[in-house]
Amino acid sequence: MMINAEKTQPLKKKTKALCFFVAEKSEEPFGLPKIDSKLLAAIKQSVKETKGKRGSLYIIHTHGLIPAEKIVLVGLGQTHKINHEALRASSGKIAKKITELEIREFSIVLPDKFPLKTDSAINAIVEGVSLSLYSFDKHKKEKNPVLQNLSILVSDEVKISHHVSKAKTVSESVNFARSIANLPPNECVPAHMAEFAKSLAAKNKLKCTILSKNELRQKGFGGITAVGQGSKNEPKLIILEYNGKKDESPTVLVGKAVTFDTGGISIKPAEKMDEMKFDKCGGCTVLGIMKAVSELKLPVNIVGIIPSVENMPSGESYRPGDIIKLYGGSTAEIHNTDAEGRLILSDALSYGIKTYKPKAILDFATLTGACIVALGANVAGFVSNNNNVVNKVKRSSDRTGEEVWQLPLNDDYMDMIKSDNADIKNVGTGRAAGAITAAAFLANAVGTVPWAHFDIAGTAWIQTGSKEKSYNPKGATGFGVRLVIDYLSS
Ligand code: BES
Ligand code: ZN
Ligand code: ZN
Description:
The structure is a single chain. The chain is α/β, with parallel strands linked by helices. The chain folds into two domains: about 1-160, Leucine Aminopeptidase, subunit E, domain 1, CATH 3.40.220; about 190-490, Zn peptidases (Aminopeptidase). About 35% of the residues lie in helices and about 20% in strands. The chain contains 14 helices and 18 strands. Strands 7, 8, 9, 10, 11, 14, 15, 16 and 18 form a nine-stranded mixed beta sheet that branches. Strands 1-6-5-2-4-3 form a six-stranded mixed beta sheet, sandwiched between helices. A three-stranded mixed beta sheet has the order 12-13-17, covered by helices on one side. α2 crosses α3 (about 120-130). The longest helix is centred in the middle third of the chain and has 25 residues, at about 155-180. One zinc ion binds next to β10.
């Protein structure tokens, strides 16, 4: 879809739909120019009726009184509560409505006098529109219609154009992450994840290394090989490197990519097991970030590490009771083969730290059901050992609307993963603090390197029965891509 910013008077714009934002209890939409009195009356009447409630939509036919065929009014809610999230969600609503009306082209008016700064408002509008239009129809005969053109009408297009293009790149990277995450588990096995990384690397000039099962075994990746040994789809470790700055230690990003999590020998119940195709979402987030970072040419060094396995029950599977040796050197006793994510992440984190001596390491994982119990499906769990990282993450979370909530980690939690027979065990004591004991297992691998862990079990896809947002349609959300791009840009 083409999105451009242009300096055109709204009433001169020939367009199928001219969209204005409205605040609650205001009489007129933002940026409404002097207009034909009949149209003005119709606009005022509809503003009265919808009251500018957040998410409300109203369509007025112009009957040739202006070049635009329709005027669309979109409510943003109470003036003092208008923020980027409201703008992103409302812009998504407009785009969905326009598609429904089988219109292919529309315009949005963003006046100077608006409660939010123009550059960040542009960002929210472009994200809301691009992200809401994503749909996973690869395997359907009937494809969704595609919108072709959006013009954002502003007062100074020169200053605005590069914000439009940055927001487009980031949104496309989120949609790229979604499109891999949504793939079915028979199609997207670890080798397939590796193919995506290779072709991204070839297109975007990244360095790509893939470690095979034998190499992983030789090099001592005990976690990845143990989890992967039950499946005929062999495990892979995917490494992508982007160099945007000379002589600086990189930020390492690690993403869990379990292409299907049956639980293994500690098998999961059948209900909703199909959703465990989304257990690769952390890895997909890292792929999305690598795409965006390289296309935006950010002046940073980034390494993406994606351990990818399929967790299956079979005669070759690892078992409860097994003791394995992790890449970092600790031994781990397996108490539940369904707690597989922390095993492959521990290997990847240790490898990232040893190989790249990073200034910070961030990981993304659909790690625990306990995180959903604690925080629900709209907020990711977040654990860190470093206050600078915490502050940066919180700021990026506020700016992007990708919500996180910090969970504590202290020695009491570290004690909960001590094992009688090995250094640590892969579950805590009982079910208490499940999201934190999982993080404690990872903390064992990172030591004092500045680290943030994101448990995206609730936020990585729209859970059955939970509410979708306009810009997060059904399926994978690509959670984390926008937050990390903001983090790396600031
Ligand atoms: N991939 C799951 C976590 C998960 C479950 C994410 C549901 C999203 C929705 C993870 O591998 C897992 O099964 N964790 C176990 C850990 C337990 C055995 C300690 C869990 O959360 O039940
Ligand atoms: Zn599991
Ligand atoms: Zn899992």
